Amino acid sequence: MFKRKPFSGTQQGLVLAIDIGTTYSGCSFRYLTVNSVLDPGVVPEIKGVTSFPAQPPSGASKIPSVLYYDSVGVLRAVGAETLLESIIERAEDEQWTKVEWFKLHLRPKSGKTAALRIHQQILALPLAPDKSIIQVYADFLRYLFSCCRTFIEERMLSGGVGFWESVQDRIIFVLSHPNGWEGPQQNSMRRAAVLAGLITENPEDRDRLHFVTEGEASLHFCINNRLTVKKDEGIIVVDAGGGTIDLSAYSVSDPDTNTFEEIAPSECCFSGSIFVTEEARSYFEDKLYGTRFEEDIPRITECFDQTTKLQFKDSDESYHVKFGGLRDREPDLDIRSGQMKIAGLTMARFFQPSIDTISEAIVDQRRDARKVITTVLLVGGFAASPWMFSKLKDTFQQLGLSIYRPDTNVNKAVSDGGVSFYLDHFVGFRMARCSYGIHSSHIYESWNPEHQRRGFFTSLDDRTLVKDSFSLILKKGIQITQAQEFRQSFQYTTSYRLRNISENILAYQGIDNNPSWIDVDPGAYLKIHANKPSLVSISTFQRCIPLLAQLLPMFQRLLRRFLHLKTRQASCITIHRLNFDIVLLFGLTELQAQIAWKENGLEKRSPAKIVYEQEL
């Protein structure tokens, strides 16, 4: 088992990893973990919050990801409070809005899904009146943060209140998210964290908030729970949650330092356990339509989700959903004594779309991996399903793969792993999930058939060019270190003074391994454009969500002064040129950017703050 080194800092602090799940959040084991009180010279131990409001005295490690808002958008109940009969009754009487599965409102538009029809139904679920998804996310973050504070202040043996007051302005936050979420989703989560009061918008606060993918957090959890991987052996970590299934492939790059490398692009599938529940709901709606039990469908579905779904392990047996009393009886509908009987083969059909999607994703990652995959590690709440585990095990053992679950509670993977991500940094190499480049014009080559087909044009400075070419900055599948830089030069040539500039950086998300032209598969590009001196932006054709990189005053002054500006007279037209580089760093879990230019022969740099323009 990995042994963590003592914390070497000189100032006491606190790390909080928060995992908001589609169905459940909080809890020390998986969702919300007050993970580590960092005392100088003491080996950090990952701990968890095990008590939340409205829970029984014995407590629990997780709460439902559910909120109730009243008719004017005031938050009335959160988490375990929403399970209280008094709250449910009041919510019905006063017509409160129940908000659940809200996390999926942040998701990218693309991604594999178990059932498109059900997925669309999920996204159609209501939010609170006059509330955006960021505001809902912030309300839930604020509640979890308050629970953390109460837990720490009450459970520390001495000085809990004083400790919190001493570290509250230095708390390190780690927020986890599905593998498929990138800049736009991270920015929404950052805005929610500011709105919730976790951090401020001050630049010095920016580095107190970190993001980790659920796949990478799960790897850290497994390493801390006796995972051993031989050199050149590949593994796939599958985090099976309520909404998403996250797959990440790794191998050991340096056994001495316990450093891992990502060996295939990570994957995110929308096929978690809620899709099983929704398949069951559709079955209940068809079976009970027009009967006296039709109004009981929400209750039957809820009981199925909380009990029957978790018990299913044998398709040859029958299972029961207990939802009513002894008088609830209708043999023709398989209902007796308040219980509805479901055949095992019918139960299996509820699970099959999710199992098929997960199996396909594992096969794809195994095929794309740089090293031979020998093992699949299954973690997350959905991993506890005996039926899903047995079906995956049977399928992949025939293909020479071993499938395991850690021998500890698989619900704790992401929350514990989020803290380990910050403390241990096991992943030294990550893999680019898409190709990045710029929309450019190449010098026309008369011998090139593709150039001949497209034709040419003459630029202001009399160059013969062909348009719509794609110049790569970073190719999909390339391994990236944390400090590795990728850059592309920009040149603006215009007859106007450079009060406004415009350039594009594109993220290609299609299937072409070597994209060369942006008018081929145009829907697969993420477009980035800038149209002000203080802005350089990135966006996508596929999602049309621009990403704006705000330049610091140093570079703004450069534009205002027109340094490195060359002019020439041609046909009484003054031609202006400006040359600079955009430097992108992809090795961290959050994209970073810099601006570089030459001044008196020396390279100068200015950091760029990445800001995403949302559709939300």
From TrEMBL:
The protein, known as: Actin-like ATPase domain-containing protein
Organism annotation: Lentinula detonsa
Transmembrane segments: none
